[in-house]
Amino acid sequence: MNTSDSIITKSNRAKKMMLWFGMISMSMTFAGLTSAYVVSSTRADWIQQIELPFAFTLSTLLILCSSGSFYGAFKMLNSNKIKATQALLIVTLTLALGFVYFQFQGFNGIIEKGYYFTGPESSITTSYLYVLVLLHLAHLIAGIIVLIYVMFKTLKGFYFNGNILGFELALTFWHFLDIVWVYLYLFVSFYS
User: Residue 31 pLDDT > 80, yes or no?
Assistant: First the structure.
């Protein structure tokens, strides 16, 4: 191994480690918020069970499918099938935008049930729900920006001859976002 290979290897390892540190800190944020949710659920004004609108279930299915299509794009990239990679990245972006759409539809459904997030009609329960979902949505927007960047780099032929670290990091982050959403969805759905 020559010196430049060693530097590239160390750089790649450092980039992966930075991503993992970032994901761990995000996990701690969501763990802290869900812990606060549990502690606050003992309050007298806590709404015992909010039935989440079906739109949240649809958004969950879409984000899981997006994880599959992104992984499929990664497999196609490793097989040097660039057109298939690009097509699957477009599918992933479409599914991600569908996720965002159904998240807002879910919020509309909660409001239609008479549960408001702010103002005099709001409750601590809905405020927590609002913070959990919007914080995840903010991270997902960052993920969409990364996805668009990867799409652009793929279109420009940047990923070649094993130079796929950026794609790998984006895929890892995307799977992380999916796992966090599934955790939040199940937590809010089944915690009583």
Answer: yes
